[in-house]
Every structure is written in structure tokens, then in C-alpha cells.
Amino acid sequence: VVKLILQGILLCPPEDCPAYVYSIMAGCWKTDPLDRLSFEEICKQFRRETQKEEADTSPIKDCRKLGQLSLDMDDYLLPKCATSQL
């Protein structure tokens, strides 16, 4: 692996690896140490992406999605009539 990286050949991203993670990995594999991402830069990028993910999964966003759904009455369960047994 080291030989490939030293030749500038990067490994393929792992399956289901987010593009931003692979980008960070590639930034760490630069052959010239001065071109590599600093630990501070890595942390900033992860923090930025984490904040994006949190915003994408916020409860408010989920509520907005609900307003865009089209509901069909056939999808609902109808309550059974209640009978009193006295």
C-alpha cells in the first residue's frame, strides 16, 4: 500500500465510504508532508460534515417532509366500533 501511495496511486474508497471521508483520506496520503492535511484541517472538515448531517436529520426537516407526503385514505386503518358490554 505504501509503495502505491508513494507513486501517487490512491486506493479505491471502501464500500459505503462518504465522499468527504475519502477526500480527507486522500488529503492525508499526499507524498509531500507539507501538502498533507493538518490535524486541525481534518477536524474542521469532520466537524463541518457532521453539522451538515445533523441539519439534514433535524426533527424540523422531518416535519417538513411529512407535509410533502400524499396520503391515500386506503392507507389508514379504520377504528372498530366500540361496543359496551354491560
Automatic annotation (TrEMBL):
Q: Which UniProt keywords apply?
A: Receptor
The cross-references to Gene3D superfamilies, in alphabetical order and at most eight, read:
Transferase(Phosphotransferase) domain 1 (1.10.510.10)
Q: Recorded GO terms, molecular function?
A: protein kinase activity
| Matches recorded under InterPro entries | Kinase-like_dom_sf, Ser-Thr/Tyr_kinase_cat_dom
Can you give the residue ranges of the Serine-threonine/tyrosine-protein kinase catalytic domain?
2-45
Q: What is this protein called?
A: Nerve growth factor receptor TRKA-like
